[in-house]
Design goal:
The mean pLDDT is 82. By secondary structure, the chain is an alpha+beta fold. It has nine helices and nine strands. A hairpin with a 4-residue loop joins β8 and β9.
């Protein structure tokens, strides 16, 4: 061990020029780089233990030296006496770009496939949701139409009896008339929905007081919200808008009617109008 340590110590004391055959260094580097799949122009220099350049290749250039790879020439030398070989590649960035450039079309193609897949999934789920909404609408409308039809049919059969007094007879006729009007209104609403969807009914635009219209809707439904003892929370000023007054009236009636229907007894019914720069937001809560 003492002999080996002494040999190392004496060798590290020698100059780097005495320990390295610079003439063979270029061929050695080129062969090993090529064997590792790197066929690029390179420049190198050798630094002594004090960091001074003691040898450079014949065509040495500073370009790319800020991204140089360095390695200790003799790993057993003490840290204070270590000489370093620095190698850099002027065409390193071009080489890296060329290495991945062939992948760019594949990445673009993959991205297109991914976007198409996501869009297809979105369309499928959206179509599924629309189908479910359509089925729900058909089921609800079937139920709503069935109720007055059954009432009309039932009272019409009762009217066929001969033992009815005039008062009962008139009462049944009134119910049939009311249910017929209700059935006609529902049919009209369905037709209006179809026209709204096709944008063929929005030509009758007038200017009117939105706040007053909502207050009139509340008065119309007063019996319903009074029976449930709902506390009205009104939060809006006077707002003048341009729109189809008749259709919006039906919208507020439907929304308020549903809010009252599903509100708990002794609960609340809130109505708020928010005016932004370009639109109005009507919030109905229970």
């Amino acid at each position: 061990d003492e002999v080996v340590l002494d040999m190392i110590r004496r060798a590290s004391d020698k100059s780097i020029g005495e320990r390295v055959r610079f003439g063979d260094l270029n061929g050695y580097l080129q062969a090993n780089l090529y064997n590792n799949g790197i066929d690029l122009p390179f420049h190198y220099e050798v630094l002594d233990k004090e960091g001074r350049s003691v040898y450079r290749c014949a065509d040495y250039e500073e370009k790319g030296s800020d991204e140089a790879y360095q390695q200790a020439l003799f790993k057993n030398d003490p840290p204070t006496k270590t000489s370093v070989l620095k190698v850099h590649f002027p065409g390193r960035r071009d080489y890296l770009f060329d290495s991945v450039s062939f992948m760019i079309p594949s990445l673009i193609f993959t991205l297109v496939l991914l976007v198409t897949f996501i869009f297809t999934i979105y369309i499928v789920f959206r179509q599924k949701k629309l189908t479910e909404m359509k089925n729900d609408f058909i089921n609800n409308m079937t139920h709503e139409f069935k109720t007055p039809i059954v009432s009309i049919k039932g009272f019409a059969k009762l009217l066929q009896k001969d033992n009815l007094d005039q008062k009962t007879h008139d009462k049944y006729l009134q119910i049939i008339e009311t249910e017929s009007s209700r059935l006609a209104d529902m049919a009209t609403n369905v037709l209006n929905l179809n026209k709204i969807e096709k944008q063929t009914i929005l030509s009758n635009i007038t200017s009117f007081n939105l706040s007053e219209q909502i207050r009139n809707c509340l008065l119309l439904l007063e019996k319903k919200w009074s029976n449930k003892n709902l506390n009205l929370i009104i939060d809006f000023d006077e707002h003048q808008i341009a729109g189809n007054q008749e259709l919006l009236y039906q919208v507020w009636i439907n929304l308020l009617d549903n809010a009252i229907k599903f509100a708990p007894r002794d609960g609340k019914l809130g109505i708020k109008i928010i005016h932004n720069q370009s639109d109005y937001q009507i919030l109905i809560s229970n």
